[in-house]
Design brief:
The protein starts with 6 loop residues before the first strand and ends with a helix. The protein is an alpha/beta fold. The protein has a five-stranded parallel beta sheet with strand order 3-2-6-1-7, with helices on both faces. It is built from nine helices and twelve strands.
Length: 250
Amino acid sequence: MQPDLGKVYLVGAGPGDPGLLTLKGKALLECADVVVYDALISPQILTMINPQAEQIPAGKRRGRHSLGQSEITQLLVEKAKTEAIVVRLKGGDPFVFGRGGEEMQELVGAGVSVEVVPGVTSGIAAPAYAKIPLTHRDYSSSVTFVTGHESAGKYRPEVNWQAIAHGSETIVIYMGIHNLPYIVPQLLTAGLSPETPVALIRWGTFPEQEELVGTLSTIVTQVEAVAFEAPAIVVIGSVVNLRAILSGNS
């Protein structure tokens, strides 16, 4: 007979600002037995974790993986065998480019009870903190969220940039800084104007948040000139022009 298992909670920590963590997420951290957390989680959020809880870093950054994806899932399964409340604390929202679906699929397959606690995703929060509304009745009525994290030389890219270019009026790219020199020509080839506004938002909602604004024709050169690095969100579309207006700089 299989022993009783604990429950794993996939909790979205939000984009960085601890004030954007949900009340449910905070309550779970305060009573957790184990917390397995990603990189880029705000230090202030980590201080909310039950002091008696076991805390295990499992975050992945480009080129620096502390645990592989299969190792993380196996760890969660093992902890659920001995602990009642296991929190998998993920940046942003677990189901928005956070591999939460993959982890949940494996956990359910292993017979572990799982609950998802949504979080505020950086693709919404970072532009908001930069005073860029993703939709506006005069500028944009549709948004596409897409990952930019794929190899520049892939034979068959997962992202169809031709379709993305014409799929909506605002494009939000996660993890796109490294491949921006590949992505921008794809969008231009698809027919977007070189004058299309672009904003890069680094460390969105953190105190050190910074922005770099340009156009499709200039942004790659600008990134190289100032060594603008990840983590950052890319926003493409006319809504970027609202930043100056809403900041009172128009």
